[in-house]
Amino acid sequence: MAIIARKIETKLLKKEHVALNTYSFYFERPRDLDFYPGQFLRLFLSIPQSSDRGNGRFFSIASSPSEKQFLMITVRIRDSDFKQTLLNLKVNSKVQMSLPYGSFILNPEETIPHVLLAGGIGITPFRCMVRYTADSNLKIPITLLVSSSVVEDIVFQAELKEIASKKSWFRFIETITQPENSKLPWPGKTGRINKNFIINNIPGYKSSIFYIAGPPLMVDAVDNILKTLGIDVLKIRKEKFTGY
């Protein structure tokens, strides 16, 4: 059943620095508000100079529907008026947002293996999906493969590793594309998500559902790779993140 989007007023509960130029913002969640894992919201702020895009921006909801006390978004901060205004919000500041939107969602009735492919901050809807699956004890086989430029860009690592250590249905794989530019050491996998990376790390890829989220070029590239591997287009879901 579809959940109709609506506009709400809420307040900032806290903000947390989680990675290089990356913050998580926690907003109060109305008790009667629901959404599906993977959906997004539109946040409205009073910004000094309103562009053609207006004063609203879209962000994936990184918190799970099972986390009833808050709505969380995780954002790479850039020099735009909107993101600087967001960064400077004080705790208890009131904001407006409309939600939920989007069809890039986890369907609990699809129990075949899921492969979630994230580029950078594209991990946010997947944190929501994995947290929801764990909290709801769904036991859907999930492999989350995250590609980050440098080690300092990684978000949600400790939480996702913990879930992987406790839940046999969840595999968490990370790769760094620019280890030479990282200030922190990286002993793990390196390189981009390409054809061989998928074949070598996802043994059951031919019978899986794929979700791709990240920058447009990354999403398009991985989409093409999956098609060359013979994945049915109906088993490929995509969400492009712009503005990063």
UniProtKB/TrEMBL annotation:
GO molecular function: oxidoreductase activity
Domain FAD-binding FR-type: 5-107
SUPFAM superfamilies: Ferredoxin reductase-like, C-terminal NADP-linked domain (SSF52343), Riboflavin synthase domain-like (SSF63380)
Pfam family, one: FAD_binding_6
Domain of life, source organism: Bacteria
Entries under InterPro entries matching the protein: Cbr1-like_FAD-bd_dom, FAD-bd_FR_type, Flavoprot_Pyr_Nucl_cyt_Rdtase, FNR_nucleotide-bd, MRET, OxRdtase_FAD/NAD-bd, Riboflavin_synthase-like_b-brl
PROSITE patterns with a match to the protein in the record: FAD_FR
PANTHER family for this protein: NADH OXIDOREDUCTASE HCR, PROTEIN RFBI
The name this protein goes by in its record: FAD-binding FR-type domain-containing protein
The organism's taxonomic lineage, starting at the top: Bacteria, Candidatus Roizmaniibacteriota
